[in-house]
UniProtKB/TrEMBL annotation:
<dbReference type="Pfam" id="PF17137">
    <property type="entry name" value="DUF5110"/>
</dbReference>
<feature type="domain" description="Glycosyl hydrolase family 31 C-terminal">
    <location>
        <begin position="610"/>
        <end position="695"/>
    </location>
</feature>
<comment type="similarity">
    <text>Belongs to the glycosyl hydrolase 31 family.</text>
</comment>
<dbReference type="Pfam" id="PF01055">
    <property type="entry name" value="Glyco_hydro_31_2nd"/>
</dbReference>
<feature type="domain" description="Glycoside hydrolase family 31 TIM barrel">
    <location>
        <begin position="277"/>
        <end position="601"/>
    </location>
</feature>
<keyword id="KW-0326">Glycosidase</keyword>
<feature type="domain" description="DUF5110">
    <location>
        <begin position="711"/>
        <end position="779"/>
    </location>
</feature>
<dbReference type="InterPro" id="IPR025887">
    <property type="entry name" value="Glyco_hydro_31_N_dom"/>
</dbReference>
<dbReference type="GO" id="GO:0005975">
    <property type="term" value="P:carbohydrate metabolic process"/>
</dbReference>
<protein>
    <submittedName>
        <fullName>DUF4968 domain-containing protein</fullName>
    </submittedName>
</protein>
<dbReference type="InterPro" id="IPR048395">
    <property type="entry name" value="Glyco_hydro_31_C"/>
</dbReference>
<dbReference type="InterPro" id="IPR011013">
    <property type="entry name" value="Gal_mutarotase_sf_dom"/>
</dbReference>
<dbReference type="InterPro" id="IPR013780">
    <property type="entry name" value="Glyco_hydro_b"/>
</dbReference>
<feature type="domain" description="Glycoside hydrolase family 31 N-terminal">
    <location>
        <begin position="63"/>
        <end position="234"/>
    </location>
</feature>
<keyword id="KW-0378">Hydrolase</keyword>
<dbReference type="Pfam" id="PF21365">
    <property type="entry name" value="Glyco_hydro_31_3rd"/>
</dbReference>
<dbReference type="InterPro" id="IPR000322">
    <property type="entry name" value="Glyco_hydro_31_TIM"/>
</dbReference>
Length: 818
């Protein structure tokens, strides 16, 4: 390193260093680190209690057990009885959960903490911690005492937890892993990585969600290992009867989350880490992206083709080439001479513009962002105080330290110009963080970490989340009360409070279509419901069939966007010829018909913590064979799909959960609780609607807010018994729903052999009401003689297709058909 350089100045030669330390780690997990003696907790000698916190000690080391609620208990380990700062980026701030009651008793061999649903047993001999149901069934038990070893790299500890694993236990969760849904028999690590063209089973990927669900004997529980260092999970891979998780630093700290329903575990995980706010309605429409649409004429042409061909679309994306030399917050004026005009013209035509922003800031003394960052010391520095530098798209770059609230605040304000230009959403990429050549930052880079300070080992996995958090906060302020739209590639647990996510640089292959189906289900049950893949595949060339099948899956992806790499051929819905265009159009239109249904699923996610995509294992965990099913999944509460993932596929086997289900395209009724062989013509896919449900429908629009909707169409599917469906409505743009300005309609359906009753009640203060309802009834097992709505007799009508419907010209409470 040049002697002349002063601390805090730019160290150019750092770039030439072959700093491969992180890359080395990626391929050589902890196994290659020279063996250091492991230390284990010993025998519990005593404990102290303070409120809902218990501290047990063996004389040297201690653990803390905190009862967060009747179902959530946290365990922390302190090898020298000194607990680290109790701070977490994952846990939401306004956490408002409390135990209703708990007690502790001491027996000859254990301390037993008991809530109304769970028993936490700390065995004195060996210091083993276990969690049980009240009936004594063990859900999760230490197989070895918690242990640690001195970390030779930095003087902290590697920390380990090893649990006993029964032969039937299945595992789910961990975010974006590109493997089978059931994680058993596999080992994973979390280290956010830019993994262009990743493969099946490749690990690590872009995101760190150290949360898993175990299901054993039909009962489920969850573990959230809240640690931002490089973490590992081994689900009975090395030892068939052991599950371990460990970390290269930080504290062994985990939350045990009781079920026994998997759905409840997921909801409780959301209780800790939060949910996604209601996205603006346009964000759940169809989005068109590529790397990159430019110049302006090209953007306008793509947009006008959508309108000309009458294919709905709500957003168009500008990838890195819109910037001036890849400088964030600038425009390339040659390509986009008047961005404000372009964006407002697009907006007049119903298109929102979303732009890319990366973390790397070009080292350029003539660039205001660099100068502001430099003056205020907002950029990350190495252990020796030189600025962290690396090459990314703009060339030589420095990188903001988003773990500093001041830096986040500043970064948020940088969006002002873009917001004034009319930009509607922001896409944060490369925030693992990714650096050309060396992969990411070297370990010695220091971070503010909210004043607690730490090296990159500790901050790496939350860097991207803090970046998009600052984007979200900034946009929220700049846009007044309008809901931001953000999307991020890197993530840590809890990122859902600030952003949607996509799965990064996938490949245009059938295998990747399947990987996407696995990843989105997994993300959804890991707290990140607002997720999508690059439809069609980022790299490589899909043919018309793959593209179209992927588009069909896209309709049932919470985030629906086509995207592709810079060197690929055209990827618009019409790019593969008229035959494929027609099918893509039909399916994008289906997305728009389902908008109120999808919007409701987002609401149920936000308010009731229900994941949007639901694997079969989550719906019916009591059947062991269901723990292996992974191609069919529920999308919201009432629709089940099984995307087609093979070329030339004529039919596919689909499992339907208990109940009766209607094939979407012809309303054939099928019995659930079994598999069916379903035909898969190219212009259809296996989509099933639950008997007993109400599916609201909008007319096809070219973009989400195109028309005012006065008549709401409700499709009611008869089912024997009592069912509840929801329909959520608001004006789609502000946070007024937080003040109850919304409508959530509850429909209670009672289906009998000779009658059907629909009772509606409405929650919320939103005053826009529909003038009328057009109610289609599907699957009635009887002939209709009598229709009554709130005391009035109505006539029954039949439409052109012979479908039976009723028009109700007012807000109704009770409708009976017999
Ligand atoms: O080094 O901005 O995953 O979606 O199109 C590649 C260009 C950087 C990676 C993203 C991809 C995006 C691309 N980016």
């Amino acid at each position: 390193m040049a002697e002349s350089q002063k601390k805090g100045e730019i160290a150019t030669d750092i770039l030439e260093e072959e700093t491969l330390d992180n890359i080395h780690h990626v391929n050589n997990p902890v196994l290659d680190v020279p063996a250091v003696e492991k230390k284990y907790l010993n025998k519990v000698l005593s404990y102290v209690k303070q409120g809902n916190v218990f501290v047990f000690t063996d004389g040297k080391a201690s653990i803390e057990v905190k009862v967060f609620s009747d179902e959530i208990i946290r365990v922390r380990l302190a090898p020298r009885s000194l607990f680290l700062d109790d701070f977490s980026y994952a846990i939401k701030k306004d956490l408002d959960i409390h135990p209703t009651s708990f007690s502790i008793v001491e027996t000859a061999d254990a301390f037993i903490i008991k809530t109304s649903v769970v028993v936490c047993r700390i065995q004195k001999e060996g210091f083993l911690v276990s969690f049980e149901k009240l009936d004594g069934k063990v859900m999760n038990a230490d197989q070895q005492p918690m242990h640690w070893e001195e970390n030779p790299d930095f003087g902290g500890y590697y920390v380990y937890c090893t649990k006993h694993t029964p032969p039937d236990e299945a595992f789910f969760g961990l975010g974006d892993k590109s493997t089978h849904l059931n994680l058993r028999g596999r080992r994973f690590q979390n280290w956010n990585s830019d993994t262009y063209g990743f493969g099946f089973n490749q690990d690590p990927l872009y995101k760190t969600i150290p949360f898993y669900i175990g299901v054993t004997g039909g009962d489920a529980y969850g573990v959230f290992f809240d640690n931002t260092f490089r973490t590992y999970f081994d689900f009975a891979a090395e030892q068939p009867d052991q599950t371990s998780y460990w970390s290269e630093g930080g504290e062994l700290q985990y939350y045990y989350i009781h079920g026994p329903q998997m759905m409840d575990v997921v909801k409780r995980y959301h209780e800790l880490t939060g949910t996604h706010y209601m996205p603006p309605l346009w964000a759940i429409g169809y989005h068109q992206c590529r790397w990159s649409y430019y110049p302006e004429a090209n953007v306008r042409e793509v947009a006008s083709q959508f309108r000309k061909r009458q294919i709905p679309c709500d957003a168009i994306y500008l990838d890195i080439d819109y910037m001036d030399g890849y400088r964030c917050f600038t425009w390339n004026k040659r390509y986009f001479p008047d961005p404000r005009k372009m964006i407002s013209d697009l907006a007049a035509d119903g298109f929102r513009t979303v732009v890319m922003i990366d973390p790397g800031i070009k080292v350029d003394e003539d660039y205001w962002v660099f100068n502001e960052g430099k003056e205020n010391k907002y950029f990350c520095r190495r252990g020796d105080d030189y600025y962290m530098e690396g090459y990314v798209w703009p060339g030589r770059c420095q990188f903001p330290d988003y773990t500093n609230p001041k830096v986040r605040e500043w970064w948020g304000t940088l969006y002002r110009g873009l917001v004034e230009d009319g930009v509607a959403g922001v896409w944060n990429d490369m925030n693992e963080p990714a650096v050309f050549g060396r992969g990411t930052f070297p370990d010695d880079v220091r971070h503010y970490f909210e004043g607690l300070r730490g090296s990159h080992r500790k901050a790496h996995n939350i860097y991207g989340m803090q970046m998009v958090r600052s984007t979200y906060d900034g946009l929220k302020k700049l846009q007044k009360n309008r809901r931001p739209f953000t999307i991020t590639r890197a993530a840590y647990a809890g990122v859902q409070r600030y952003s949607s996510v996509w799965t990064g640089d996938n490949i245009a292959t059938w295998e990747h279509l399947k990987i996407g189906i696995l990843q989105l289900q997994r993300l959804s049950i890991s707290g990140l419901s607002f997720c999508g893949t690059d439809i069609g595949g980022f790299t490589g060339e899909p043919d018309g069939e793959l593209y179209t099948r992927w588009m069909q899956f896209g309709v049932f992806s919470p985030f629906m966007r086509v995207h592709s790499a810079g060197d690929t051929r055209d990827r618009e819905p019409w790019s593969f010829g008229p035959e494929w265009e027609a099918i893509c159009k039909k399916f994008i239109e289906l997305r728009y018909k389902l908008l109120p249904y999808i919007y409701t699923a987002f609401w149920r996610q936000h308010k009731y913590r229900e994941p949007i995509l639901r694997p079969i294992s989550l719906l019916e965990q009591h059947k062991p064979e269901n723990l292996m099913r992974e191609e069919e999944f529920a999308f919201g509460h009432n629709i089940l799909v099984s995307p087609v993932i093979q070329p030339g596929q004529q039919s596919k086997i689909v499992y339907l959960p208990e109940g009766n289900w209607y094939y979407y395209f012809d309303h054939t009724m099928l019995e659930g609780g079994q598999e069916h062989n379903v035909k898969t013509p190219l212009d259809e896919m296996p989509i099933f609607v639950r008997g007993g449900s109400v599916i609201p429908e909008f007319p096809v629009m070219q973009y989400t807010m195109e028309k005012n909707i006065d008549t709401l169409k409700l499709n009611v599917f008869w089912g024997q018994g009592r069912y509840e469906s929801h329909v959520y409505i608001d004006h789609g743009e502000t946070f007024a729903y937080e003040q109850s300005v919304y409508n959530e309609k509850y429909f209670i359906i009672e289906g009998e052999q000779n009658s059907l009753t629909i009772v509606q009640h409405i929650e919320g203060l939103y005053h826009e009401r529909f003038d009328s309802y057009k109610i289609y009834i599907v699957g009635l097992p009887f002939d209709v003689h009598h229709v009554e709505v709130d005391g009035d007799i109505l006539e029954t009508l039949v439409d052109e297709e012979g479908k039976y419907y009723i028009t109700v010209e007012k807000e109704f409470r009770r409708l009976t058909i017999s």
